[in-house]
Structure formats: C-alpha cells, structure tokens
Amino acid sequence: MVVLATALAACSSSDGGAAPGGTELAKAGPTAGPPGGWSDGGYKPDTASLKCGSKAADPTRGITADSITIGGLAYLTSANGSSMAGTEVGAKARFERANAEGGINGRKINFIGVSDDGQDIARNAQQARRLIEQEKIFAAVPLMTSNTGYLDTFCENVVPFFGWGFNQGYCSTAIGFGITGCQFANEKVATNSLAYTINSLFEGAPTNHTVAVVGVDNDSARAGVKAIARNLKAAGLDVVYAENPIPVAGLTDTTAVVQAVMTSNDGQAPDVVYHSSDFQSVLKLSTALKAAGYEGKQVSPTYDPRLVGVKDFDGNYGSLQWLPASDDANPTNKQLLADLAKYAPGQVASLPTMAGYFAADMFLTAAEKAGPDLTVDKLLAVLNNNYSYQLPGSLPESRWPLNHFISTPCSSVAQIKDGAWRITGPLRCGSVFLTGK
Fold it and tell me: Do residues 307 and 429 share a domain?
C-alpha cells in the first residue's frame, strides 16, 4: 500500500498537551481526547479556492427512477504486489445491505464494481474516462488510487468521489470526500496525533523521541513524508531522517537504507522508525533493521488480520485513522463484520476492505439526505454545506468543507504480539493547530 502512511500524518489531542512551541506533549490513549469531536484550532480555509466547483452538465447522470449507478477506481494490482484489493468487497457488502433494506429513497444501488488501474497513471486516466463515458456512473465509490490521472475527467464532468484520501485529488477539490479527509494539508496547519501515537509506545512521561520516516519515491508519498515530518516536528518530536529511498517497484536491496536509518541519530539509531511504504517494503525493511540489531519501535499504517501469521512482523505497530475491526464490541465494527459474513463470506476486514465499506456508507448517508430528487449538484450542495459524517467510536467525524483541506486529527494503535493483534491505543481525537507559517 504505497502511500498509506500519509493517512496517519494528522491527529492530536484536545486536552493534556501544550500548545505548539511548548515542551510538554500529551500521551496517546485516554488523555489524547475522546473518539469523537475535535478542535479545528481556529483554522479557516478559503473555501472559495476549492477546485472542480462548477455545476454538472449532466446532473442526473447514472440516475433512473429506481437505480443509481456507482463504480469505483483503485489499484487492485501493482508491479510490486501491494494493492487495495478488498476495497471493492467492502463497498459491495455495504451497498448490498442498503439494497436489501430498500435502497436510497426508493432507488437501488447499481454497483458495477471497481476498475483496476494497476497503479499506472495512464491507465488511471483511461479508466476514469471509461467510467464516465461508457458506464455513466453517478459517483465514484470507492476511489483508492495513488495516482491522480482521474482528476481532470472527474473535475470536467463533476463526478463526486469517495474513499481514503491518500492521493492529492482529495485535497482542495469540491468533489473529493476522503473518509478521514485530505491527507496533504498545507504548511499553515499541523496536527500531532502521530506524535501521541509514538509517545504511547513508551513508558513514562512524553519526551523528545527521535524518529526516522522512510517513504516510497513517488509524488504522493514524498508529499506524505514531508507532511508527516512537519507534524512530528510541530508536536515536539525530533525527526532525524525523512527521505523517500524506496522505489515504486519495491525495495530489493535494503543495505543503503538500513545504514542510513541506523546512523541517522547523530551516528546512532533513532527511537522510532515510521514506514511510509507498501507492505512488502515495510516487511523487508523492518526485518532487515531487526537483523542489523535495531531495537527501537517500528510503526506503519499496516493492519491486516492475516499478518498475525507473519513471524517477521511480530512486535511491529500499526497506526490507524479509525478503530481496527478486531474491536468487534464496537457497534459499527460489529455491523461491518456481519455484513461481510453475509455478503462476502471469507473476506477479512483489512484496511482496504474497511475503507471501501466506510466510503460506501458515507455516500449512502449523504445521498439519503439529498432526498428523492437526487442530482449531482444536490448531493454536493448537501456535502459542502456544514455537513458532518462519522461512525461513532469507529470512524471519526469529518466536517465539510473543512476536510477538503485537512485530515481528521484522530488515530488508534495496535501491535502484533505473539501471533495476535492487540489494540494498545484506542481511537482518540484531538485538534488541528496553526503553525504560524
């Protein structure tokens, strides 16, 4: 999952921590704030600057008296083997339940599935055109790509899209709705939930831990590493390395990266290595670091129930922007797992699967509110007018249009230990703050 780590570039606390520039940081967990509700820190973005804000030339595209045509776009395959496979299953399960319950204001969802761009930008653009010109989709759900070749076509045709906002098309556009907002905030704002996540891994009072951030060498990941480093620094941590040495095709020789990381802290190893790369590269590099004698904490936005059998991943942490499905006491997670069991037996609740499910639910909720006379323009008018969406305790609140510009400042932490995922930091939210730049 090449750029998933950008999704964890934002989150913080509404109590227990000093303001930016102070010396005390709140620790992750209960002191980091509740699982819902967060402060925008007084940030007021220029909503008039949002791109793709024109009226739709065909506002009822994909709409009939009894159906709404929806299709998605994702990298279900890639050259390095990492993918968003499962996101189509999560969305389908949620749409199937909606249809079983009568649909949206009398209309059933005609879900045509998710097109695979193979993580190729030209194919990404081609598939986007096909979805509009041939399939006539009303909206793209889920959209889970690292490339933004789709954006010109979707902007020109005013196509709302919903998914995990880890590509830059989700930022500063009026038509993109990330389930946890835009992951590439500008330098005027920062959040520090990842700092809380890191502090929660250590006993005792929060301190100035040293962190190395390692990313993939593509545009989105470079922007993500930059954002992660900015947020960590603003929250008081010491970022000793923030580079993108991993090729998009995957990491083959770990020697140079291991040496750079192991000596990044004035010749010593950092306290924490944060991986912003695809899973195969995370596994290869984290294993190589352990073999080189690294004894610090290794964190990545990698969570999948199937990883419990990967011995080399034992001890690593997963940082998420929502509650892992392993907490099946949460009502939302319980419903998600029930829907998967009914409509997609055998499908694990991986991050892509959960993201696809959440994206579908986000669309359904907004479309229901838009009413029976549904059009593209009415849907966007609802979403971009002080709209909020959350799944209590599971997926944190997003606010629109604010989250076209920033991420939701929330996170949870889990660790693989002795063959099982253990939630070490439940979902907690905090605040955005202004950097003064």
Answer: yes
Residue 100's contacts (CB-CB under 8 Å, 6 or more residues apart) are none
44 within domain boundaries: no
HEC letters along 183-208: CCCCCCEEECHHHHHHHCCCCCCCCC
pLDDT-derived band at 13, boundaries 50, 70, 90: very low
The pLDDT confidence band at residue 32, using thresholds 50, 70 and 90, is low
pTM score of the predicted model = 0.87
Query: Are 194 and 180 part of one and the same domain?
Result: no
| CB neighbours of residue 309 within 10 Å | 10
Mean pLDDT of 346-352: 95
- Reference 48, options 414, 397, 401, 336; nearest CA is 401
What's the farthest any 2 CA atoms get from each other in the chain?
Answer: 67
| Overall domain count for the chain | 2
Q: What is the mean pLDDT of the chain?
A: 89
Contacts 24+ apart (CB under 8 A), 184-188: 184/6, 184/9, 184/220, 184/223, 184/224, 184/227, 185/9, 185/10, 185/227, 185/405, 185/406, 185/407, 185/432, 186/405, 187/230, 187/435, 187/437, 188/43, 188/434, 188/435, 188/437
- Dump pLDDT digits (tens) for 354-412: 999 999 999 999 999 999 999 999 999 999 999 999 999 999 999 999 999 999 999 89
Structural domain boundaries, residue 367: 49-185+327-404
> Which residues are bridge partners to 70 per DSSP?
111, 139
N-to-C CA span, the chain: 31
Residues 348 and 230 in one domain: no
